[in-house]
């Protein structure tokens, strides 16, 4: 039976149910929105966390694992130091006469020998006894020793060295000792901001661990033609040279080499040779005893804005060929002076350092394509690379430096090189022939000729190589002259010195 009450109740309840449905729908929608926001935040936080790679709670486990593979490198070198020759003169019978006679033979000039020692760092790269360090740590050493964490000291032999990248390889006989070694990592995958660990022997204190981050990549500190250093703020001091720079996987991604400092201590700017550069050098030193780098055979320079405009280039990218030796690979391939190298072996090159490194890292004998800019258009040439070391040897022989040293009248003479320029603190304008040693008691020593002096002329004839000096001496010997006149220079002063031929 139809009842108005019931009907009216039904009519009143319908809107209520509709409102409840709307509320429920809105609630479900709100929950979905909250869920979506929660998921988004969670994913974002996870991504940020993965990207940020928070600092480890401790480096202790890593340091404990790696430290036994890091060694101290101790070297000894016999060096000759010059006596001043300026000692007090006393009248006969003076009480101090015998004392100074015993001490310095009354001011006798010449050289005396002393033993110099130095300390650096290194690391074991394989269990058979290969140890990596810096070239400058062992350069000129007469004896090299490797000292392990437990204090054991063993003699090491030099396998090979490369001054251009400051890398050296040593070999030790482990005997019954089980060596702990480390492995190379890929420095190209390391990023600015990544955590790194440095272990070495700063100030001769022994194994020391420091941590920091990679501050920069691809640094050029003007130390060589292949500079591509990793910069780090991990504390690196004197004695750390040759030690490893580790990533958080315990892999070597760099060889600690240099620091920038005005005090001699770390100010947070240290430099490491990247592993991707060092690995190939080490491999070649082990296999050949020396490096074998590719050689293109061009003289190059960077492209300036003015040059780019004159050459019709839209920017300064590329390397300008300033010269092409006639016997080099580039000449044979048809590359000419005035060409701009845009790509080498499909790799874009924007400056001389990039090209030098790309060529050096390419195998000797490889055929590579070189893209050039010539006369307003791009062309390509195929070049078979030569060997840089052979080219340098040939150049040295051609310029008379095969006989790089010679003994003349109590003096050891050599043609100026980067090594001697650093050793004797010579200015950049000093070229030609220098004195590298003077025999004690010789007339040259008595007449105050010292190591580092430059020989400008022999018997009024200019000389620029040791070969020139030997040729002039031969002519003088054949002429039966009793003495030879030499023009020498020390610093800003020059003087003539006459030396007897019969001495």
């Amino acid at each position: 039976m139809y009842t108005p009450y019931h009907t009216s109740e039904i009519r009143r309840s319908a809107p209520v149910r509709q409102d409840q449905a709307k509320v429920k729908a809105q609630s479900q929608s709100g929950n979905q929105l909250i869920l979506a926001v929660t998921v988004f935040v969670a994913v974002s936080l996870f991504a940020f966390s993965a990207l940020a790679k928070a600092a480890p709670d401790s480096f202790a486990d890593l340091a404990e694992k790696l430290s036994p593979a890091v060694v101290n490198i101790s070297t000894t070198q016999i060096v000759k130091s010059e006596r001043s020759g300026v000692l007090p003169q006393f009248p006969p019978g003076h009480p101090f006469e015998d004392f100074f006679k015993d001490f310095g033979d009354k001011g006798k000039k010449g050289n005396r020998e002393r033993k110099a020692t130095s300390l650096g760092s290194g690391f074991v790269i394989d269990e058979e006894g290969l140890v990596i360090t810096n070239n400058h740590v062992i350069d000129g050493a007469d004896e090299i020793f490797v000292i392990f964490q437990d204090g054991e000291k063993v003699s090491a032999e030099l396998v090979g060295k490369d001054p251009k990248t400051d890398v050296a390889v040593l070999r030790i006989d482990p005997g019954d000792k089980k060596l702990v070694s480390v492995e190379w990592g890929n420095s190209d995958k390391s990023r600015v901001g990544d955590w790194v660990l440095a272990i070495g022997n700063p100030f001769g204190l022994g194994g020391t661990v420091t941590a920091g981050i990679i501050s920069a990549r691809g640094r050029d500190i003007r130390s060589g033609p292949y500079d591509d250093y990793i910069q780090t703020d991990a504390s690196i001091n004197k004695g750390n040279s040759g030690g490893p720079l580790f990533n958080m996987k315990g892999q070597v991604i760099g060889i600690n080499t240099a620091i920038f400092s005005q005090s001699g201590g770390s100010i947070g700017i240290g430099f490491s040779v990247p592993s991707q550069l060092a690995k190939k050098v080490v491999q070649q030193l082990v296999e050949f005893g020396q490096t074998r780098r590719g050689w293109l055979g061009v003289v190059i320079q960077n492209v300036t804005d003015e040059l780019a405009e004159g050459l019709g280039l839209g920017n300064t990218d590329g390397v300008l060929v300033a010269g092409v030796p006639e016997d080099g690979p580039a000449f044979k391939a048809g590359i000419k002076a005035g060409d701009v190298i845009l790509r080498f072996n499909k790799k874009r090159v924007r400056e001389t350092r990039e090209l030098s490194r790309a060529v050096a890292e390419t195998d000797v004998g490889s055929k590579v394509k070189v893209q050039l800019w010539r006369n307003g258009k791009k062309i390509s040439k195929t070049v078979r690379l030569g060997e840089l070391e052979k080219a340098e040897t040939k150049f040295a022989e051609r310029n008379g430096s095969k006989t790089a040293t010679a003994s003349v009248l109590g003096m050891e003479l050599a043609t100026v090189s980067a090594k001697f320029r650093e050793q004797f603190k010579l200015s950049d304008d000093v070229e030609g022939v220098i004195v590298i040693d003077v025999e004690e008691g010789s007339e040259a020593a008595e007449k105050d000729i010292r190591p580092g002096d430059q020989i400008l002329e022999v018997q009024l004839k200019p000389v620029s190589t040791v070969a020139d000096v030997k040729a002039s001496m031969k002519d003088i010997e054949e002429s039966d002259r009793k003495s030879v006149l030499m023009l020498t220079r020390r610093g800003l002063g020059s003087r003539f010195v006459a030396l007897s031929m019969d001495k």
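Residues 399-500 form a domain with the Pdz3 Domain fold (CATH 2.30.42.10). Confidence is low (pLDDT under 50) at residues 1-17, 37-52.
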